[in-house]
Structures are given as structure tokens and as C-alpha cells.
Amino acid sequence: MRALSSLRWKIALTTTAVCCAVAAALGILVHNVVARQIVGEVRAKAEADLDHALGHYEYGTSHGDVDVALDPPDLPGPLRELVARGDTGSMVGSRGDEPVMWAAGPADDQALAIWIPYGNTRDRLRDIDTAILASAGLAAGVVALAGLFLAGRISRRLATTAAVARRISSGDLDARVGFPADGDGRDGGGDRDGDGEDRRPARSRDEVRDVAQALDSMAESLQARLEAEKRFTADVAHELRTPLTGSLAAAALLPEGRPKEMINDRLKALHRLTEDLLEISRLDSGVERAEPAQVELGRVVRRAVAASGHEATVRVLRDTVVLTDRRRLDRILANLLVNSHKHGRPPVEVTVEGPVVVVRDHGPGYPPELIEQGPRRFRTGDPGRGRGHGLGLTIVVGQAAVLEIGLTFANAPDGGAVTTLRLPVGRLPEAG
């Protein structure tokens, strides 16, 4: 969400910066055009008055109401040098403390100069510049607000899409963004003649909607594939269960000896695999429901470890009463102990501290992909670390979800796999 908010502000700031740049360019252009026009008018009047004054000077007549003087001391140096070369010209300068527009020309080796007040013209140019700056600031503010509003809409839609993507990644495959296909909730036509070609009229492209629709399509495809895999797993397990039961019964009738032991061993392994598949299919279907009860966690863990038949050291640092389904918790602990003895090395330690149970071995630890992504069925990571189908830890994850147990997989700094269970603490609602 922070990244999306940053995108929102980046879009708004970029829009504002572009608006300011355009306003600055237009302001400079308008200033130059208007200033050239206004100053040109004053310059033209000054040059006309100069021509009038030179004519009067040549005929020795009065100059009328024009301010004129020969070689005035305030005449700007550049204009004086221009007149000395025999040319006429004009420029903005000052006479005393007042800004004026000077115009001067040669007259008997002297500079005949006239001047026109320039203060009002300068004030007018400043007023125009102020108006340009105010207009640019107002435009930038309006564009910034509009950009912030539009960027907010985009970021909200992206935030919705990101939230749905996180829900899908956490296992909620029913989550959908649900943006309408054409932005207004209508279907908009589509393939009317059945030839597979979209006949809808062209509409403006909406990339955010395209991403959302692609995410929804991906979720639907993924959900369909997973549902097909779940049905296949359940069907295979159910189909195998009956012949396996018969095979086990038939194997019991074989004469004692090594062949019977090998057949029973393989049949029992296949039977356990089938039962695991059935359990996973029930967990995947969401029909499993816990029957919580208040139990003393330390005592339950000791009994579960003892009943598992696998050697492990149990330490109860601090016992507490938790709300859980004892049968399912036994299943979780048994699978963790089996995994520790199969893929790890002794000693295996089980520690109880309050509502937290930690199971640790001293083997090579969990594969990095298991820690990052969680257990995956029929995948155990490094083949050299031992055989397996990856179902035990998958069942642990499923049963922990049913019991609302917090589950984390990690490796100890000095080696060994560490599995942490955080059980919910609470009380059953009182009857009546």
C-alpha cells in the first residue's frame, strides 16, 4: 500500500511539474510578446517625438510640448556613442530618479535628446507579469488536484488488485477483482456471430482493468486446475483403498518368511500413502471441522510423543491450558516427529513454553524453498536427503489451519530444522 501511495504522489507530482513547465514556457512567451509590443509602442512614440524635435531644431522653431535638450547629462552612454557615429536611437534609462525612454539624434555635432516617462509602462509590465504568475499558479494547483484525484483512482484500483493477488497467494482462490469488462459495468456486445472474433466497437484502453482481468483469469484457471487435481487425488485414493485392504488381508494368509515381510511392508507403506491422500483431499475440500476442548498442553504433548513411537526429548518450560482438538494435535506432532527422524538427525527435542510448541532436530535443516514457500505435496526438496512424498508436512499445514495454529518453518543457526506451533489460548463458551 505504501508503494501504491508513492505511485499516487509520483503521478500527481509529475503532472504538476509538467504543468508548471508548460506554464513557465507560455508565461515567458506571453511576457516577451506583450513586453515587445508595449515597449515598441513607447519607443515608436519617442522616435516620432525625436523626429519632430529634430525638425523644429533644424528650422529654429519651438519644440512644442516635447521634453528636449542638447547633450543632457543623464543621456545614457551607449546612446551618446550611437549619436556620435551619426545615428539615431532609443533606449530605456533614467533621468534623475524617474525611469524614462530616451531617444537621441545628431544635431550640429551634438546630441539632441528627448525623453518620455516610462514609470507607468514599467508598472504595466509588472502587473502583466503578476497576472501571468497568478494564472500559472492557479493552473498548476488545479492540475495538481486533478492529477491527485486521477492518480488516487488509479492507485485505489491497483491497491484492490494487489489485495486480491495477496488473497490468492494465501490460498483464497475465490477472490476476484471484478472490474467490469468495459469500465461501466456493461458487457458491451462481444462475439455476435459465433466466429470467435470480438465485434465490439473500439474503446479506450484501460491497462489497470486489463491487469485485473488477467489476474481474475489466472485465478479461475488456477482454481480449475487445483480442483481437478483435488478430485483426481481423492478419486485415486478411494479407488486404491478397496484393493489395498483386500491385498493386506490376502498377504496375512501367506506363509511366514522374508517374502511375506517384504510384501506386508510395501503394502502398509502404500496403505499409509493412500490414507494420507484421503486426509489431504478432505483438508483441501474444507469439510474438516475441529472439535476444540481445553487441555493442558504439556501433558498432551508428552502423551503424543510417547504414542508416536519415535524417540524425542520433551521439555515443558511453562505449561498452560489451550483450546484445541487433541486428536488433530496428535496427528501434527506425530508427522513432525516422523519427518525429523526421516530427514533429520537425533537428538529430536520438543519444547513447550506456554502456548508455543517447538520441534527441533539436528539434521541438515529444511530446504530454503520449503521455508520460503511452505511444504508442497510430492516434493521433498533435495533428493539426497531421504525419500518421501512430501505429504506429512502438507498434512501438518492443513491440520494446523483447521486448528487455527500459527505454523512456521525455520532452521536453527547451529543446524537443524525448527518447527514452531503457536496454539490459540481461550475458553469454551459456557452452556446456557
Task: Provide the fold topology.
Blueprint: H1 2-59, E1 68-70, H2 77-84, E2 89-95, E3 98-107, E4 110-117, H3 119-169, H4 207-251, H5 258-285, E5 293-296, H6 297-308, E6 313-318, E7 321-324, H7 326-343, E8 349-353, E9 356-360, H8 368-373, H9 391-403, E10 406-411, E11 417-422
Parallel strand pairs: 6-8
Antiparallel strand pairs: 1-4, 2-3, 3-4, 5-7, 8-9, 9-11, 10-11
Helix pairs in contact: 1-3, 3-4, 4-5, 5-9, 6-7, 7-9
Supply the key terms.
432 residues, alpha+beta, Helix Hairpins, Heat Shock Protein 90, 3 domains, five-stranded mixed β-sheet, four-stranded antiparallel β-sheet, rod-shaped, phosphoprotein
Question: What does this entry look like structurally?
Answer:
By secondary structure, the chain is α+β, with helices and mostly antiparallel strands. It has three domains: 2-142, no CATH class; 173-182 and 206-287, Signal transduction histidine kinase, dimerisation/phosphotransfer (DHp) domain (Helix Hairpins), CATH 1.10.287; 293-422, Histidine kinase-like ATPase, C-terminal domain (Heat Shock Protein 90), CATH 3.30.565.10. The protein has helices at 2-59, 77-84, 119-169, 207-251, 258-285, 297-308, 326-343, 368-373, 391-403; strands at residues 68-70, 89-95, 98-107, 110-117, 293-296, 313-318, 321-324, 349-353, 356-360, 406-411, 417-422. Strand 8 (349-353) and strand 9 (356-360) form a beta hairpin. The chain starts with a helix and ends in a 10-residue tail after the last strand. GO terms for molecular function: phosphorelay sensor kinase activity. It is an enzyme of class 2 (transferase). Residues 176-208 are annotated as: Disordered. It catalyses: ATP + protein L-histidine = ADP + protein N-phospho-L-histidine.
